Amino acid sequence: MDAASGAEEAGHDSAVSTPGYDAQGTSSQTVGTSGGTVSAQGVVLTIPAGALAKDTVISITEDPGPVPLGYTALSSLYSFGPQGTVFLKPVTVRFPLKSADPSAPFPST
């Protein structure tokens, strides 16, 4: 994510704008300092209040690229933008699993 390439609207601090999709299937929304949620293709990115210093256009794109060598994909791959964005507080990403791999490690509680 790159904070420099995010769109900024002067004096605008909306939590979430109306989502938009482009021809490549990218979902993007402006999220402000009050936080918000961006969703696309079953993926939900939750950004808490104070995680962004200014209005930023956050995007989610399903990535058709290959799974990195040595890894097993349990879901589709996704790219989040803008590249280089640094969140000031932890964010949460939820996504659906395509298939469960019984040998994959899962944390226990």
Summed up, the domain count is 1
- State Rg: 15 Å
The N- and C-terminal alpha carbons lie at a distance of 32 Å
**Shape from CA axes?**
elongated
Give the number of helices: 0
Helix content: under 10%
The portion of residues forming beta strands comes to 25-35%
Low-confidence stretches: 1-18
SSE order in H/E notation? EEEEEEE
Overall pLDDT confidence: 77
Q: What does the model show?
A:
With 109 residues, the chain is mainly β. Helices cover 0% and strands 30% of the residues. It contains no helices and 7 strands. It has strands at residues 20-21, 27-31, 36-40, 43-47, 56-63, 77-81, 92-94. The strands form 2 sheets. The chain has a 4-stranded antiparallel β-sheet, with no helix packed on it. Strands 3-4-7 form a 3-stranded antiparallel β-sheet, with no helix packed on it. Mean pLDDT is 77; it is low at 1-18.
